[in-house]
Amino acid sequence: MLTLYYAPGACSLVPHIALEEAGADYRRHRVNYAVGENNQPPFRTISPLGRVPVLLTDRGALTENPAILSYIAQSHPEAGLAPLDDPFAFARVQSFNLFISANIHVAFRQIVFPDTYADGEEAAKALRDKVPELADRYFAVIEQGLADGRLYVHGDRFTLSDAYLSVYANYLRKGDRGDVSRLPNILAHRARIRARPAVQRILEVEGLADEWRD
Amino acid sequence: MLTLYYAPGACSLVPHIALEEAGADYRRHRVNYAVGENNQPPFRTISPLGRVPVLLTDRGALTENPAILSYIAQSHPEAGLAPLDDPFAFARVQSFNLFISANIHVAFRQIVFPDTYADGEEAAKALRDKVPELADRYFAVIEQGLADGRLYVHGDRFTLSDAYLSVYANYLRKGDRGDVSRLPNILAHRARIRARPAVQRILEVEGLADEWRD
To answer: Residue A40 — left, alpha, or beta (φ > 0 → left; ψ -120 to 50 → alpha)?
Structure first.
């Protein structure tokens, strides 16, 4: 049995969608940040940095979003969430996921948790002020990749990368981190992913249906 | 044929070692940062952010270090650089690699390229000043993982994660980013990896043999 440790609206939403898309047999555990559960021993034992997502398996815990996503795809091959039999195509999926993880996720974290990177209010302001420029640069690369009219990030099939992109495109809509209006391909992609039944179910579970509405 | 785009001493050293350990048939292209090659069209076409490493294959380019590493392992299964037939064990390798990529690599980048995260000299100083604290926290997690006397990150076999860790442990020795002396397991691991013939060859190619000496 798999258990996803998540917080509503956090980036654990991506594996939450992936598990649902995979038709996985899983439980969910909501980590209660309000009472500091993320910084207490039971959770810190499986998440050394006190962060979601964690996927607990019968063999132990997995952390780091792209690794969790690849595991969900590999352990549910029938769901077709990644091109598992083609090392190059699989690497392209991973490369895209890491582009978000190592660049876009870090940029957005600068807004929510600037003290991950530097101390002090002036540094926090400088970290936040930089985000729109970074978001513009990073999302422009993705927008260009969608410009050939493809329906999904890697072509004509839904993969892990589509779940990943849709969640970060939705963060971008919050307004404090860049201008989403110049990214029509990404907006159309987001609407396409949001319409999927599995995504709808998870948005309901996490209480995000309003936030995801246009 | 594979071509690795690298810069001496950059984190492209990790896939450079992995290609050599895999016995891969590959070429190398040194990206000349001194003349701005990293920011000019031919290279920017394969690396949208102008960064190394890039692994160019007959089917296109791959970016993002952990994705490149997994591709090298999957396309050279006989080399045994990752437990390819065991999704959970493979995910643990990826999770470790991402722990470095998303945390330690970002922290060290704060020293070398602080303007990736914020503008201005004061912000740059705040970003640099935070790094020893971050390095302590992140490397402590890894040090504890090695405390059971294992020879390699994931047990008794060399994997991609060992190449990754050794390169970042060597960065840590530069002295401006944390205290390596409290990490005896990581230091012993680094010496073990450095002694490997494939690693020795690549350190010679990149001109790093002196920098890696004790």
So the answer is: beta
Shortest Cα distance from A120 to chain B (angstroms)?
8
Residue A176: per-residue pLDDT? 77
Q: Please tell me whether the overall predicted TM-score, pTM, comes out greater than 0.90 for this model.
A: yes
| Domains of chain A, earliest start first | 2-79 (3.40.30.10), 87-196 (1.20.1050.10)
Q: Give the CB-side neighbour count of residue A40, counting CA atoms within 13 A.
A: 8
Cβ burial, residue A54 (10 Å; 0-12/13-18/19+): buried
A213, HSE (Cβ side, Cα atoms, 13 Å): 4
Give me the residue from B74, B102, B127 closest to A118, CB to CB. Answer: B127
Choose the closest CB to B126 out of A99, A119, A134.
A119
Q: Are A63 and A51 in contact (CB under 8 A)?
A: yes
Q: Is residue B102 within 8 angstroms of chain A, CB to CB?
A: yes
Q: Around Cβ A115, how many Cβ atoms within 10 Å?
A: 11
Residue pair A28/A202 in contact by the 8 Å Cβ criterion: no
Task: Answer yes or no: are the C-beta atoms of B123 and A110 closer than 8 Å.
Answer: no
Question: Is B105 in the A-facing interface, judged by CB distances under 8 Å?
Answer: yes
Cα B15–B162–A97 angle (5° rounding)?
55
Bridge partner list, B57: B60
Partner-chain contact A64 B102, CB within 8 Å: yes
Residues of B in contact with A153 (CB under 8 A): none
Q: Is A12 on the interface with B (CB under 8 A)?
A: no
B106 touching chain A per CB within 8 A? yes
Using CA atoms, how far apart are residues B123 and A161, in angstroms rounded to an integer? 33
Model confidence pLDDT, tens digit, residues B120-165: 999 999 999 999 999 999 999 999 999 999 999 999 999 999 999 9
